Amino acid sequence: MTKTTCCCHGCLSCFFDYETPRTIVIQSKGVGLLFRFINFLIIAYVFGYVCYLQKGYQDTDSIISSVTTKVKGYSFTNSSNLGPHIWDVADFVIPPQGENSFFVLTNAIITPRQTQSSCPELPTTSTICIADCDCTEGFSDPRGNGIQTGLCVNYSDTIKTCEVQSWCPLELDVNIPEQALLGAAENFTVLIKNSVTYPKFNFHGRNIMSDIVNTSYLKRCEFNRQTDPHCPIFHLKTMVSEAEEEFQTMAVKGGVLGILIDWTCDLDWWGKPCRPQYTFRRLDDKNPTNNVAPGYNFRFAKYFYNSDGKETRTLIKAYGIRFDVIVFGNAGKFSIVPTIVNLGAALSFLSLTGAVCDWVLVTCTRRRHYYLKHKTTVLDDSDDTTESLSMGTTYGTH
Amino acid sequence: MTKTTCCCHGCLSCFFDYETPRTIVIQSKGVGLLFRFINFLIIAYVFGYVCYLQKGYQDTDSIISSVTTKVKGYSFTNSSNLGPHIWDVADFVIPPQGENSFFVLTNAIITPRQTQSSCPELPTTSTICIADCDCTEGFSDPRGNGIQTGLCVNYSDTIKTCEVQSWCPLELDVNIPEQALLGAAENFTVLIKNSVTYPKFNFHGRNIMSDIVNTSYLKRCEFNRQTDPHCPIFHLKTMVSEAEEEFQTMAVKGGVLGILIDWTCDLDWWGKPCRPQYTFRRLDDKNPTNNVAPGYNFRFAKYFYNSDGKETRTLIKAYGIRFDVIVFGNAGKFSIVPTIVNLGAALSFLSLTGAVCDWVLVTCTRRRHYYLKHKTTVLDDSDDTTESLSMGTTYGTH
Amino acid sequence: MTKTTCCCHGCLSCFFDYETPRTIVIQSKGVGLLFRFINFLIIAYVFGYVCYLQKGYQDTDSIISSVTTKVKGYSFTNSSNLGPHIWDVADFVIPPQGENSFFVLTNAIITPRQTQSSCPELPTTSTICIADCDCTEGFSDPRGNGIQTGLCVNYSDTIKTCEVQSWCPLELDVNIPEQALLGAAENFTVLIKNSVTYPKFNFHGRNIMSDIVNTSYLKRCEFNRQTDPHCPIFHLKTMVSEAEEEFQTMAVKGGVLGILIDWTCDLDWWGKPCRPQYTFRRLDDKNPTNNVAPGYNFRFAKYFYNSDGKETRTLIKAYGIRFDVIVFGNAGKFSIVPTIVNLGAALSFLSLTGAVCDWVLVTCTRRRHYYLKHKTTVLDDSDDTTESLSMGTTYGTH
Known about the structure:
The structure is a homotrimer. Chain A is α+β, with helices and mostly antiparallel strands. In chain A, about 25% of the residues lie in helices and about 35% in strands. Chain A has 10 helices and 19 strands. In chain A, strands 7, 8, 9, 13, 15, 16 and 17 form a 7-stranded mixed β-sheet that branches. In chain A, strands 4, 10, 11 and 12 form a 4-stranded antiparallel β-sheet that branches. Chain A has a 3-stranded mixed β-sheet with strand order 3-18-14. Chains in contact: A-B, A-C, B-C.
């Protein structure tokens, strides 16, 4: 029989053949130990590190989240320009609802009863004037507050500045109150409701977990990392302290505080229950150097018509703390593809072990020449002539 | 020639050597079948599961998205305290624009003409008093509404409570209207425009797809899962129904409804066109047990100056449905790296097949000793002496 | 000794055995070259493409981000209905603060002094009437503006329409100003502060990088892709131009502009410093075909009490540009798991190389029969009888 016979008699017989390498067993303690030691390392890596620590057998999904917040509290102030005044949620939470953040007013520069009219510009080197000729009608300084009318008018008893058409009187924002107007905001509380979904695993979770909290607990609890880590009601002061900031200092010029909710979850049934972890971090840069417009503030206005029917507004430069609720995390669940990929990659290294040990065997061992002789046969090109003869017989059975 | 000659004559000749294992072919139907069956399973897994189902040959990217919404509709109410009143978009969408969400007012407790003044506190066990001595001037109860003035005044004909300084008259929010004020909001529609990008693949998409909708269709269509799955205009009632909720019930105390837009896409040219899928799900917990502040509401105020020039406000506790547009998804596109990784990992298992079949061969087959004899040679340590002799001749050609 | 002896004498000796394939070395230039060339390709792919280009040795994390924005600028308009008017930030940034976006008003249809009353509906084919009988009391057209009172009244000298109860007078929004009211908004600037975190790597970054900018630079700089790529202050016009749009055109009907901040980072110490890259892209569809409600606008109202104590509002249909700050990116850092996975997968292909070369060897080479004879031994089933005999002796040492 020649080789072609195989194909003639049908591939069926070839189909049932099994081809396997011929091997030699070498009784070398050193190489045997090395081989098993490397394999042990690889297996330990796979099961210890990849499977146990990194959970390489898991498929992951990223989070989608929805947040609602509700601030509670009120505060009484008695400032010189406002008089006695109660501030409640409708006054100090601006805008009244956000998506993933809420702003609590802590300080404010209030400029009431502004109208569209003319008034002297705030004094700077470019606006102080002596006579009308120092001012240019229609000129609009990008760093100014309005369109110059061309007149030079008294800003105070001693200073004259160019008159501008603008919302008058102008806001004077150089001196912000050194003590925060609503420093009492530190006692306000906020209820955060967070609903998350991992769509790939059809997992839905809430930060108010029905298995560990109940209605009566929720009505009286307050977040505390040690004693109440799952209470969704947070004292503003607690949050700022957790971020290692001082509320009263932060309240003066405002800032941005991140409420980070970590939903990293192991969704396998043998994993721990999925619980959110809260951390807090100041997100804006309080460092005064290499910075611009430190703190956090914005301007808004309340519009009225005054008794003359003229549009009037109260301009408020609101300083305060913006709390950004940032929900993040990844869920992992057993999946066959990453398992195969991680195991397969490690298996490749097992086959590499053989190559390493072979190299050691024929290079570093005392009896390397003996091993090499038995392991490897070098085909001599001069055998070529004998090949065609012997093939017919030796190889015929294939 | 000795082994060192090779190195002397140059590595060039070694470089062209090809070393390959010697193998034996075993005509065993069982093991041959097993070998081919396991390999078939692995190949089926790779092509069927990894490539076809899991698209393991794809690199993925996560979405970035921008959403704009526009609510349309108006409603007529005739309540006892407001009188006949038309509500339009500027009245019931608060704030007028959001980023990824919009709020539609469905119910409200309106407390008009509040001013900073004094009035009797709402009656609770701690605020009911008989004489002024029951009240403490300057005391501020965290669960109350203002600073006590120290007086005990008539709340009603029968009840006296401590007077507080606050925005007066106080809001009375215990009795919310049992039928939603703006129940007609169920007929409002919203146009959702969603623009997405997968930056890694430079893919830009919109939920208004120019290839399947045109302007005239957009002007009259309405989303319907069966008949109009790509119309970007949604009836509020349809969305709530799709989430298996009842609009009128949800409207009373409010809630949060997720509009989930799934942009999971196969961006390969042989994939399906990339189309968004809309689903709807209630995100807040309507379960009254293990819950706090169920529903969704927030307070805001409209500020005025009254005819005396005193600041006045209308406080509105707004109940309603917040619609959160949540855009998610992953795009996949052929990439060489994940392909190699997945194929490579499966290849490793192919090499494992050999190990499994070898084990079966020398353990479970009837003729295992025969196979083992031919497959494996055990080097005897006692051959050591012959080695140094034979090496020079047998191995010299290497 | 029989095979069982091994197990009797203890597995210890087996444990130190090392089994390795017997190989033949074939001095074939062609196959040797092929083998080395394929291996070279695989190694080049691994180190060149996977490691260098794709950074396959890195674990990745997705970004979490917080954005604050502050618009600066003011503008003077002198329109027929408003008279001379200064617009400042409190007027044209609506709402005064957003989370990841801000809206700048550029055009507006203002309908002042609306009250809840009755007025003629806007003329359309369905609202034009001749007599009261053409109108239905209580009818509410979804495309109309209010509840019909049943009267037919003069809309103008020539046209009569059904009277509706609504916020009157009705808004007339068909003719929007052809030149944007606040076209001067192109000169406004915005300061964007962005703080990002990669939680897995505990990396925190800001777009105002203290190592390359200082306070004095920040006070005068303006973003320019060539000269000031790291200045966080952006001219609105520059951003729109970078998106290849014309500000004045876009300002008329509004639009949505994406400010994309790419934080793709290599966090390994040998990587480049992590710097944000800004790009700009129009996100809404300006194409008038296959579109609905092009541009970007929303309605809001300012509420007053008029001198009669009646609630009055100024309705504003605000056209403008919404700037969405979209922060995205992935950070990568060396990690052992993806490294092992990528190297392992490539290693598998190295073992595949052997299979390919073997196939070439026994199929395509001139001396294939000779090679095959030495490489492969076919076990003949007829040897079965000799097996049991020889086993005892030949295989006894195992």
